[in-house]
Amino acid sequence: MRSYDNNLMLIDMLNAKIPVLGFAAASGTGKTTLLTRLIPLLKQNGLRIGLIKHSHHDFEIDRPGKDSFRLREAGASPVMLVSRYRRAMITEFTSEKEPRLDDQLKQFDQSELDLILVEGFRAEKFPKIELHRPALEKPLLYPNDPDIIAIAADVKLETPAYLVQLDLNQPEMIAAFIQNHVMKSHD
């Protein structure tokens, strides 16, 4: 088992100022679907939630032909789009290596948040809930990832006693686990 500080964060996650909790699973398990159901429940409990999602694909958040796209294509980086409704920052990476979560946390404004949820970055060392659907015939992650603190599955699994089992189809149960274990350990 990896060593955590009293805030349930790995000591080497230097840029985490608040609790960080990941959701790890094989593609197609329903990470985003669960998060879209879980976030409103956590917000109802008064938590201010940030999210970092790792993608293995190239992506565009602005569209060709838009001024911001043209300016970024011309070489500006970063480019910040701002309206009275939202802000987006687009920064081009010059390195071909995968981004590290701790580096992204350095850029993430945590000052008005209580919790950062992370989708992806599953090879990194920070607390995670594994999502598992045996019907997908994908291997469980927890045997090779000591940072998994709970597993949410759609069936009962045989797991070690230290691993909290949650029902993947009960986001209320997962929200309660986060409130009672992740957030309480940070108090």
Protein described:
With 187 residues, the chain is α/β, with parallel strands linked by helices. Helices cover 22% and strands 20% of the residues. It folds into two domains: 1-54 and 99-187, P-loop containing nucleotide triphosphate hydrolases (Rossmann fold), CATH 3.40.50; 58-98, no CATH class. The protein contains four helices and eight strands, in the order E-H-E-H-E-E-H-E-E-E-E-H.
Task: Reconstruct the topology from this structure.
Elements: E1 20-24, H1 31-44, E2 49-53, H2 67-73, E3 79-82, E4 87-90, H3 101-107, E5 115-119, E6 128-132, E7 148-153, E8 164-167, H4 171-183
Parallel strand pairs: 1-5, 1-6, 2-5, 6-7, 7-8
Antiparallel strand pairs: 3-4
Helix pairs in contact: 1-4
